[in-house]
Amino acid sequence: MDAILAQLLNGLDKGGAYALIALGLTLVFGTLGVVNFAHGALFMLGCFCAVVFRYLLTIETVTIDPEQLSPWGAPVELRTPLVQDWLGDWGAFLVDYSVPLSVLFAVPVMLVIGIVMERGLIKHFYKRSHAEQILVTFGLAIVLQEIVKSFFGANPMPQPIPSDLRSAADVGAWFGMEAHTLTYPTWRLVYLLFSLGVIGAVFAFMRYTTFGMVVRAGMADRETVGVLGIDIDRRFTIIFGIAAVVAGVAGAMYTPLLAPNYQIGMDFLVLSFVVVVVGGMGSLPGAVVAGFLLGILQSFASMNEITSIIPGIDQVIIYLVAIVILLVRPRGLMGRSGVMES
Amino acid sequence: MIERDGAIMVTGCVTTGEAVAQQALCHELGVIYMSGLTHGNDTTGKDKRRYGFRHFFQGYMSGVAIAPLLAEEYGRERRAYHLTADYNWGWTQEESIMNATEALGWETVRAVRTPLGLGDYSQYLTPVLNSGADVLILNHYGHDMVNSLPQAVQFGMRERMANGKQFEIVVPMFSELMAVGAGDAVKGIIGTQNWNWQLEDDGSKAFTKSYGAEYGVPPSQSAHTGYVQTLLYADAVERAGTFYPPEVIKALEDFEFDGMGNGPTLYRGSDHQCFKEVLVVRGNEAPTSRFDVLDVVGKTPREEVMYDPAIFGGELGPYEPNQC
Amino acid sequence: MFSFTRKQFTMLVVFTAIVLTMPIWLSPLGAAYPGLMQKFVIYAIFAIGFNILFGLTGYLSFGHAAFLGVGSYTAVWSFKLLSMDMIPALFFAVIFAGIFALFIGYFSLRRSGIYFSILTLAFAQMSYSLAYSVLTPITNGETGLLIARDDPRAIDTMLGVGQSTSGMPMPSLMGFDLTGYSGFYICALVLIVCFFVSQKIFASPFGMALRCIKSNQTRMMYTGFNTKPYMLTAFVISGMFAGLAGGLLAVTDPIAGAERMKWTESGNLVLMTILGGVGTLVGPVIGAWLIKYFENIFSAINTNMLNSFFEFLPDGFQSVMVTVMSKFVGEGWHLTLGLVFVLIVVFLPGGLVEGTERLMRRFRRSSDKPRSSVSSAASEERS
């Protein structure tokens, strides 16, 4: 029983990441009709926002003490982070919590990146075929990831969890089970709550603001919206920016769980498309539901009981589900009927 | 490179799969291959080649070296769960460690293969908690270990009790770079190494000093083996008096040497593997800098880690290169 | 079917000449060593096959790397089980890749457009995961599949073909050794044959049907034409080309790894085809050669070479130029490639072939200036 609960938590946690990425992708496809193969790269850029933020926070003054020699003969360097110098304990707190705080940094940065991407490149491809959109965004993804590689190198740069949150929470105890039967890392729980929060925010935005209403209308029927005199093109830039922000903050918070490197975008890209396809390519709730569903499915499939029957099923189950859905119900779980059913 | 630049000696690799492939290619083309970082048994085991040479230690030696300390620290009544990276190195390492620990009296509860390069090990770590095991052995190296060890610690494994004993984690082979990458998670974890910059002998101290002066950081075991292999090649060429590969090979085979930081070392002719003492290390609970994250807590003498080359099979092949 | 227009014949002859003289014209570019030239030729075959699908029908598949992988693994297994001769290896590589393509194509072609692409992507990733970690007894996972001295080689032992006593057995063609330049020439011959096949397909009614599918599939179906078998055939043919390329990769270097099945390898294939010119005969070949050249030669340019290149500039300028350029060459070659690719997709979707055509048209127009405006307008309309 605890094994099942534990894998359920794993699945929800992973599913949160999948859902966030898929959310951004669906926003772009549902409103703009653009297939964005650079979305994984946006996730990667979000991860590196966290890296850069931490780097900025930990700029250190290095004083060299020529008296003391380290065992290998070089003079010992005393490193003090500047932030700590200026702000003392509060500075140390900032450095420790750099990952959650980087979200605040990531939001404006990703917004700018998204807007620049859309205005500069994506805008010209609205009328072009899907194949060409795929190609140009794929090329863009390569360029972005190579730029990151040339600045940060190819090694993963793990980011630390804030020290208070490093323990494992005794989840079992919350559910009335014996102590220490079901422990789960606290940061993963934090991530789950965070992803639910962002998803909630996006949905609230779509539901309760005029802008959101226009976007939803545009997703349902773009032509009529134009006929009503609303300039949806300008809205598109903001939508792309929002999608970039969602992907970016998902990445930033995920860094302690998965050390970011320049290739992480491509790895998540395939996953994100699979999730979107399962959920339904124009449906925001579909993307979220599919994200969590696939995360849970993948976790359960990796349970030893199941892998002993069908070895390796956890690697391929997501793709199998996507293939089956694409063949049997191409509009996805929650897509609008009639979409792409030829 | 061999065709384009006319290379006559090739060195360097970071994993056994690479080493085995490069070794085979160099053997075909008649170029000597001094491998770098490869720990899997196969490089001088079933995939040994006449033109390939390994200085770095391997899985069997790690297993034999680490077992006595594990028995001392954790006792002989342990139940182990292995998480193994699913590739050549992982497979042979798992086999060696399993044999060594089972010889102690430990029971292997389960051995699970994890895909190479997986970042998120949560789905593999959760079953460990309720499996009835009380030791987790991570047959992971490099990025795998830098991710899996901290995640295992995050799951609170080291605070748990299982079967009435403290739950422990063992990482049979690691390097300083990985230990630095894993951060606090490596404190108190037992493993083995080929060489460590903190060794006290003259050779090690000289190397550490000059490397530190050049690069500002102490050398890793991978750097050490790279330098040693190159020096050994150069020395063999001098002794053979020629660059002609079959003669250089004969000069290297069954060569006894010392002063390279590992004590007296034999380059065994029957499998082109160096035999020397193996270091057992433990994560430092209170590191004073970024670099002394590992303490040497034991040295297993060379006689104990020797083995009969026949246990791995394979054959070296001829002296003459394929194309001539 | 075997009629051959004069234009096609000339193109084939010129192409043959260029390919067979590769060692000559590549040496000033520093690329004339057999290992690289073999790669040039093999990836050109890969790209030609892909072009038959993407260029003619417009269906963008991300799964072809999987067929390449299947071809490689089949060839190595043939080396292990049957014989070191390359003919059974290539034969089985093509057959198995074709069967695999039939299977994947049957399912993927039930959808079109973006859904087709995602289906192929899903299949490709699934194949890669299977090859990497699930089917390791067959594929040997990350290490890759190698031949060993004591493999049972049924046909060889039957025919009494002895192995060379020294070292590892090498792939051969009827006992003829296949390393180095001889390997390159065999692959080049295969490329020329493939090019010929591609020419025939482009010019045939089959090719015409495929082009119709690209321009308006719905209308084609309305005229009573069943497009499915044509699509599937095109898919399988391109898969077989990929299998052939994979088999040749194993023939020139008897190892098969899972890395070549990653979907990003399919992405590279798309890059090659687009860069050169999708839908043209020579475009994919040029694209393949360019990218392989970048990968091997461009990536080896280091700061020393850059420094000597910019020596004529004053010191300050020189270091600035070297620092800037070093981001784009050497390790940054992939960045340059990505940028070039984006520029081509945005400004020159027909690839380099379209670029050269436009240039030539401009030269022709400027040399035709004295012509009257009417006739030049008419000639423009026709081109």
Radius of gyration over C-alpha positions of chain B, nearest whole angstrom: 20 Å
Sheet/helix structural class of chain B: alpha/beta
Oligomer: heterotrimer
Helical content of chain B (DSSP H or I, runs of 4+): 25-40%
Strand proportion of chain A, as a percent range, falls in 5-15%
Elements of chain A, N to C (H/E):
HHEEHHHEHEHHHHHHHH
Largest sheet of chain A: 2 strands, antiparallel
Helix content of chain A: 55-70%
Number of helices of chain B: 11
> Shape of chain A, please?
globular
Count of individual beta strands of chain B: 15
Radius of gyration based on Cα positions of chain A:
22 Å
- Low-confidence segments of chain B, ≥5 residues, pLDDT <50? none
What does this structure look like?
The complex is a heterotrimer of chains A (342), B (324) and C (383). Chain A has helices at residues 2-32, 39-57, 82-96, 98-120, 130-152, 171-174, 186-208, 210-220, 222-227, 232-254, 264-279, 284-301, 304-309, 313-328, and strands at 60-69, 75-81, 168-170, 183-185. Chain A is mainly alpha-helical and 342 residues long. Chain A has one domain (2-55, 102-328). In chain A, the strands form 2 sheets. Chain A has a two-stranded antiparallel sheet. By secondary structure, chain B is an alpha/beta fold. Chain B has 11 helices and 15 strands. Chain B has helices spanning 2-5, 16-29, 59-74, 88-104, 122-129, 143-154, 176-182, 202-215, 221-240, 245-252, 302-305, and strands at 9-11, 32-34, 52-53, 79-85, 107-114, 135-139, 161-162, 165-166, 168-173, 190-193, 255-257, 265-268, 273-275, 278-283, 294-300. In chain B, the strands form 4 sheets. In chain B, strands 5-4-6-9-10-14-15 form a 7-stranded mixed sheet, with helices on both faces. In chain B, strands 1-2-3 form a 3-stranded parallel sheet. A 3-stranded antiparallel sheet of chain B has the order 11-12-13. In chain B, helix 9 (221-240) crosses helix 10 (245-252). The longest helix of chain B has 20 residues, at 221-240. Chain B is globular and about 65 Å long. Chain C has one domain (6-296): Orthogonal Bundle (ABC transporter involved in vitamin B12 uptake, BtuC). A two-stranded antiparallel sheet of chain C has the order 1-4. In chain C, strands 2-3 form a two-stranded antiparallel ribbon. Chain C is mainly alpha-helical and 383 residues long. The model of chain C is unreliable at 371-383 (pLDDT under 50). In chain C, strand 2 and strand 3 (176-177) form a beta hairpin. Helix content of chain C is 71%, strand content 2%. Chain C has helices at 6-20, 22-26, 34-57, 64-81, 86-108, 113-134, 136-139, 154-159, 180-203, 205-215, 217-222, 227-252, 263-276, 283-296, 303-309, 315-326, 333-347, 351-367, 373-382, and strands spanning 145-146, 172-173, 176-177, 255-256. Chains B and C meet through helix 2 of B and helix 3 and helix 6 of C.
